[in-house]
Amino acid sequence: MSMTKRILLSAGILTIDLIVFFLPLTAIFLIYILLFNPPWFREFLENLDKQT
């Protein structure tokens, strides 16, 4: 996913959350994961996949 798509998706999520929930912390966390794709989150997903 390109950085432009990540930024647009993050802005859309933030806009929807601002309208509905007035900026909850989960939205900021989701935007962080979408924009930066941290290694610890990828490892977490890989571990979930191995367990099932």
Task: Please tell me about this protein's structure.
- The protein has 52 residues and is an all-alpha fold.
- It is built from 3 helices and no strands.
- Helix 1 runs antiparallel to helix 2.
- The mean pLDDT is 88.
Relevant terms:
mainly alpha, globular, 3 helices, 52 residues
TL;DR of this structure?
By secondary structure, the protein is mostly helical. It has helices at about 5-20, 25-35, 40-50.
Shape: globular
Radius of gyration: 13 Å
Largest sheet: none
Q: Estimate the strand proportion.
A: under 5%
Protein structure class: mainly alpha
| Helix proportion | over 70%
Number of strands: 0
User: Helical segment tally?
Assistant: 3
| H/E element sequence | HHH
Topology of this protein?
Elements: H1 3-21, H2 25-36, H3 39-51
Helix pairs in contact: 1-2
